[in-house]
Task: structure prediction
Amino acid sequence: MIRGLIFDLDGVIVSTEKNHFLSWKKIASSLGVVFTEKENESLKGINRRDSLNIILELANIRLSEVKINHLLNKKNELYKYSLRNLNKLDILDGVEDLLLEAKNKNILLAIGSSSKNASFILEKLKLTNYFNVIIDGTMVTKHKPSPEVFEKAANFMNLSPKECIVFEDSASGVSAAKEGGFKVIGVGNENIKLIADVYLNSMKEFNLSDYESVV
Ligand SMILES: [Mg+2]
Result:
């Protein structure tokens, strides 16, 4: 029986991938790195620090801890500034209908995101009140593909992984969910079609009633 839904944020509820991409692109070009959608693919679902490490590897340079922290802050400033006009219209198709339907059926709702800005983004989208639990990048010690973020979300809901469905758009997130024993639905990223249990082009293709009686 499905009693809880756990959502990744970026790429599932809202698409801020472009904002991340353009912010990283600025950081990368300041380091002399050519940064295209191709390089960006390896950053999806990866936390800020590890993302910068990937870019530094591409640049083949090593920086002091001070300089690294400066770049991490700079990237976050660029990113948050780019989100200043984020609003309800940016919620991806089908998401709010699903949240509402689940809420009405007493299914618990959680966020399991690597983002340290998850609460900021949910406030902007006016979705905060739907969620029983919000686990973000500030609350975990191990990032995706570690299942910690999803395990924490399930624990806070008092549910076992088998009672939850995870929605993910990144390969690291799908691996994290599978490692934790969750059923995982891949959304909107053809690269995860083969690794997710079920794949959907968009959240609006998800039909909650298909899963309600699944034991
Ligand atoms: Mg994502």
Observations:
- The chain has a mean pLDDT of 94.
- The first helix runs from residue 17 to 30.
- The domain at 4-15+87-210 is CATH 3.40.50.1000 (Rossmann fold).
